[in-house]
Amino acid sequence: MSSEKSWMPGATRRDAMALISGAVAGVALAGKARAQGAPKRGGILRISAPTNPSSLDPATGGAGSDHAFLFTMYDTLTEWDFETLKAKPGLAESWSFTDPTTLVLNIRPGVTFHDGTPLDAEAVKFNLERNKSDPKSNIKADLATMASVELTGPMQVTLKLNTPDAALPGILSDRAGMMVSPTVLKASGAGNVARTPVGAGAYAFVSWADGERIVIKRNEKYWKESRPYPDGIEFAIIPELTTGVRSVTAGQNDLIYQLPPRQKAIVERSNNLKVVNGPTLYVFQIFLNWAKPPFDDVRVRKAFNLAIDRESFVKAALAFRQGAQAARRSGLQGRNGDRTRRLPGSRFGSAPGNPDRTTPQGRHRHTLCQRTGCGSLGGVFRPRKTRLRVACRLDRAT
Q: Do residue 141 and residue 231 come from a single domain?
């Protein structure tokens, strides 16, 4: 195949989120598809991964980077459409709120876990109750509004809520909705699931050499027709990103993800790499200690929020990421009467130490400078449509 470089759209969390490996494989294969025609089955996709998973048990893991591995092996009760961010059917083929505190999930028939255990209503009930109440679970808060789970049919569960929660279908597209084989959980006491996972995803677990390599293979009984395309995926754990890029350039791996902006020039100098980027969601956070000055003053917190030049931050620090905004929607009430809202990049028209007090932004900046004595600001950022960068070789068949 001839060498080329281009920017191509992709996606992450199931098709998007901090990075999802199912989406990484899809991005790579989609890029090949556009270059070669229809995607073909076969081959092993070799990926350079920057982190070792904290756990391959969705309930007990604690790192956002785990998703790149989890989403290959576990399917979720719901998925979501990236363009609208609305939940869509996954292992639950439909759902409905019969009243504000009752959510009924209809489970997709004919799905089995990798060990052959049926994925039915009992399996879903077992998983949701484990995620909510197991002492080792790190996702109890995700299901805080779920009071109980009832079996209301062989393929139907009813969730009783302690308060209305319209976000719950979306929450079930992440760890809380990842289904693990109850047979394995009961047999191992969950002790082995973190190392030898059994889900119902597109790929089944093969092996994990800690800090070195994770190998998975295609689930031949996967419920999504004709998916996945590769016979398997091999993740090489390479924390040093420069080394990871070199492994792709040398042909040891086919793809690397989560490239920082400084790696772009290195990738572009190689004539056998393609950089693929697409929109995703990611959250950058700075936590403020409201118990101590100056952030115990609500005026300072408001000024801090208004004074952040999000647009400049994105351009300077995040390369091709774009669309930064506040983490909460407009008008949502916070503690002590705070409100956060989406704002354009601030334009003060004056030096940091001498804000223009003729504008509202300038007055907020002046308040902040008075109370803190600082001129350089940070803040809370949520790029709504950021850019995922993936580098892959062009001379490998997948």
A: no
Q: Which of 147, 164, 187 is the last residue of a domain?
A: 187
Could you give the C-alpha distances from 61 to 3, 58, 107, in angstroms and in order? 40, 6, 25
3-state per-residue secondary structure call for 2-19: CCCCCCCCCCCCCCCCCC
| Beta-strand pair 78-80/232-237 | unpaired
Q: By residue range, what is the domain housing residue 333?
A: 298-380
Q: Tell me which amino acid residue 37 is.
A: G
**Whether 178 and 31 share a structural domain:** no
- Sequential DSSP letters for 207-271: EEETTTEEEEEE-TT-SSTT---SSEEEEEE---HHHHHHHHHTTS-SEEE---GGGHHHHHT-T
In DSSP notation, 326-354 reads: -SS-TT-B-GGG-B----PPP---S-TTS
CA separation for the pair 175, 74 (Å, rounded): 9
Query: Residue 393 CB: number of other CB atoms within 10 A?
Result: 22
Determine the pLDDT at residue 360: 52
More confident position, 363 or 69: 69
Q: Is residue 266 part of a domain?
A: yes
Q: What pLDDT score does 81 carry? A: 85
CA–CA dist 336, 26 (Å, integer): 45
Identity of the residue numbered 354: N
Same domain, 99 and 167: yes
Residues 222-233: pLDDT tens digits?
999 888 999 999
Split into its structural domains, the chain has a count of: 3
Long-range interactions of 137-143: CB distance < 8 A, separation 24+: 137/59, 137/60, 138/59, 138/60, 138/61, 138/62, 139/58, 139/59, 139/175, 139/176, 142/171, 142/174, 142/175, 142/176, 143/171, 143/176
Average pLDDT over residues 303-325: 69
Q: What is the DSSP code string of 36-63?
A: HSS-----EEEEEESS--S-S-TTT---
Closest CA to 343 of 385, 309, 300: 309
